[in-house]
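Loading example: each entry is read as two labelled lines plus one structure line.
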Amino acid sequence: AQSVAQPEDQVNVAEGNPLTVKCTYSVSGNPYLFWYVQYPNRGLQFLLKYITGDNLVKGSYGFEAEFNKSQTSFHLKKPSALVSDSALYFCAVSSRSMTTDSWGKLQFGAGTQVVVTP
Amino acid sequence: DTAVSQTPKYLVTQMGNDKSIKCEQNLGHDTMYWYKQDSKKFLKIMFSYNNKELIINETVPNRFSPKSPDKAHLNLHINSLELGDSAVYFCASNSGGELYNEQFFGPGTRLTVL
């Protein structure tokens, strides 16, 4: 069975410090991995994705994530956090093994609340 | 020029009523989705349509009926509303419904059943 785990309910970081949000996954086939961000009372916004190729992917707002196949992880990182990065972050995975066809069914993690203090 | 829009933004209603939520996207996508986000912020897919055809139907009560009049619209009708239906409902879309294409989300509809 496929699953996504975000082990931290909340991450607290001071502005200017590095930010890491952890994500691990479990799928049978090759994973397609995504990070989304949700600001209060808003819909989810796409940040970045890993499909294939370079393990380090760069996305919006200075975020990046590293795909680690051996550790089945896809941690989100930002070198220097801003107060405006405070939001709820979701990791999501899809895989052809999750469905009998190619339709884009995403499995979301439980979300990690990021709080950046001035 | 909103990409994915939903109406209404807030919906407060009594148990047993029937209500609808509308979704429209102007991105030219051919696949649309409905998600439910519960009070703990957990997101779960409910339905997906590709070119007006139902392609994903998760274990959702029959009281929920999606309707797609064209590929730019996916509406959600809910009959006999129950307290447990209270949640935020998100519409999303992407191109081709492909596993590797990111989805674009609407702003959400907060449904409160009293």
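The mean pLDDT of chain B is 92.
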